Amino acid sequence: VCSLLEHKMAFICKQLERDKGLPLNWKDLNGSTLDQFSKYSSLASLPISFSAQPWQEIKHYWKVRNCIAHSDGLIENFKTDKDFMRYVTKNSIISKELKQEQIDLTEQFCADVTKTVRKFLRGVVEAYESQRQKESLKVEVLLKS
Q1: What is the pLDDT of residues 78-108, one digit of tens each?
Q2: How far is CA 67 from CA 58, 98, 118, 140, in A?
């Protein structure tokens, strides 16, 4: 789901770059993939709330993804991140069956991730389409005057 999200964010940013003639690519910005997307969206004046619940959840999912991708799901390297530890504990996605604690995704957690990412992406597409319509109307008005 995180790979799909990254792919869709890249697609939207490429569309914004093309539509608005932005002088840089979203990957030219500093920070994580999520930071780059939020900065680029702001640069393109895309009206997305990055303080809303779906985005905050996505930031947690990204940490879970990083733990899986970069530490084979082993939590040991993430123990100092208290926010991460609270999140994985609250969502009961820690397996204690092995000698080392590791991420153990539940069916419910995966369903929640999919639902949240879908909701966020729908909001992004709606914001993008709304912005395109408004800009198209502005051009029409200018052409008529």
Answers
A1: 989 999 999 999 999 988 776 788 999 999 9
A2: 14, 16, 22, 49
